Structures are given as C-alpha cells and as structure tokens.
Amino acid sequence: MKHNVNIVINVTKHDIWFCRICVASIRFYYPDVKIFLLKDELPGKFSTREIEETWSVHVIEYPVKRFGMSAAKIHFYCDQRFAGQRFLVLDSDIVFTGRLLDEKYVEDFNCDVIVSEETFSDPGSEWFKRTYFDCKQLKKYDPNYTYAGFTFNCGQIFCLGNFIKKETLAPYFSFNGSPSWKRLDVFPMHDQSVLNYLLPQLSKQGSIQLKGKDFMIWSETKKARGITLDAVKSGTHYPNLIHWAGALRTPLLVSMSNKEILLFFENYYYSKISFARLKRTIRKVNPGIKHLIKLLMLTLRDFPSKRRTLK
Asked: CA separation (Å) from 145 to 137, 204, 267?
C-alpha cells in the first residue's frame, strides 16, 4: 500500500542509537515509506551511512551543518523544495507502536499541520511555564495573546512542506545568525515555545489549517506501560507513537521504560546489519561505562546522608 506521507527524523551524534530503533520501528510496518534524516552536527560529526544503505534512508542537506536546539527542523519547515508534500517530522527518541499512517485522518491529510493535542486547564502553573512559556510574560510581548486551550509536544508533527514562511518566523528565529533562537526571555523552550504560541494564532487568523489528534503516548504513562509486545507486533492495536522526551534515555535499554518494545525494534534493526553482534557490543561499551559511573557517583553522593540516618 502506497502512503502519501514521508517521514523526517531529527538526529544528532548523541541520539543516533535511538534513531536506529526509530527507523527500525517505521520499517517494521512500512518497508516502502520514504524516510529522511535531518543531521545536526553541533555536538559533533557522525556517520549515518549504515542507516542510509541498509534501510533506504536519505539525508536532507543544508549549507548549515551545526544547528542545535531543534533549529534543523525549523529550516525544514520553511524549505521550499518540499512545498505541498506531506510529512511526519519526528525526534529520534520515538518508536511506532502500530500502523499510524493507515489512520483515516493521516490518509485524508488535507490541512497544514496536525499535532498530538493535549489539554491543560491551568496555563499559569509552574509546570506550564517550564514546559512552554510564562503566559504573563507572553502577554506583555503580545497583548492580544489568548491561550488556545491546548498544547502539543513538538517532537512529532504532521505537516505540509513549506507550510510556514521564513518571514513569519523571523521575529523568533535567525536563519543565518548564531545563536538561531531569539527572544528566549519570552520563548525559553525554543521551538516548543514558539510553535505553541505561533501556530494556534496563525490558525485563528486563517493563515494555516491546524488540527489536533491524539497519536503520541508519553513513555512513562500508564497507557504506555499497558502496551504489550504482542500488540505492537500486530500493528493494529496501537496506531500511535511512544515518545521518551524527559524520560531516562540510555543505550542500555534494560534500564528504560517499555524495554521489551525497544529491544524488539533494536533486534530488528541489527537483524539486517553485517557484523551485528560486534557493532552492537562496541556501541554499548562507552555508554555502559558512563552509566555505571553515574550510578556510582549518585551512590557515593547519597552515602553520607544514609550513614547519618543509621546512627
């Protein structure tokens, strides 16, 4: 079955291990869908050749190589080369848990943007300020601002290519300068702040068509814990994504939530790779050492307080 949505994954040197799992989860359900990578080399250069050649994945190239703070995605959203094409833009710390692209609202994709909508009744809370922005501060910046009644995480967005113009983002983002993000006093969480402010306003003005659906599941929720591996393998029970944003993320997957699902897709990835056992082992050595050192430091830090408690 041919699908009219392509997938773009934002990846850095630090999360390429998760990107491999993400790609494998997509290919498990969709062998032929087009997958592209947005490589951000700000943390350092890295190769994606293995992913590209084994899983038929392409890299979207820009003159800029070092982005940081989701800036690569902003460049993509405004890229005229992809105008009118349909995309699902993802962070790397995500896996498919079913045939999401088969959902009717995806097949009938006829708007500019679809977000995984979440409703919050208290936009003045400290959590809201830390996650999105301070509404009081934003009101000073834009006296006409009104809370749309919902928010969305920017790690997973369906959109049309070139759905937003550079000039629209110019007050918040510099496409040539460094640092890229402007007005961090008002929009401290970069794209998360800017897009949660801007897209509902543009939708209200009629500049874009914005729809909200429920397709992302947070990794640490009860719903995520209830997803069985058999359900994932079937592909029909949970046409969703699981996102590990804000959760423990380590190549030592046994330490993570939903480890069975992650290990299943990691096994699937390496089932197609030459010298898989050796590569897999090498790639886990350094992260494993770092993880053990971190645990040791936490133990040593807590030891004096525990000793005082025992006296």
From this structure: 11, 11, 48
User: Cα(264)–Cα(233) distance, rounded to whole angstroms?
Assistant: 9
Asked, as a colleague might, if the bond just before 239 is cis with ω within 30 of 0, I would say no
The pLDDT tens digits for 269-294 are 999 999 999 999 989 887 666 666 76
CATH code of 266's domain: 3.90.550
User: Would residue 73 count as lying in a domain?
Assistant: yes
Q: How far apart are CA 138 and CA 251, in angstroms?
A: 38
b/e burial code for range 18-48 (CB count within 10 A of at least 16 → b) = bbbbbbbbbbbbbeebebbbbbbeeeeeeeb
Cα radius of gyration (the chain) = 20
Domains in the chain, number = 1
pTM score above 0.85 = yes
pLDDT digits over 207-248, tens only? 999 999 999 999 999 999 999 999 999 999 999 999 999 999
211, 105 Cβ separation under 8 angstroms: yes
Nearest to 9 by CA among 62, 61, 71, 73: 73
Residue 277 within a domain: no
Q: 105 with 116: CB under 8 angstroms?
A: no
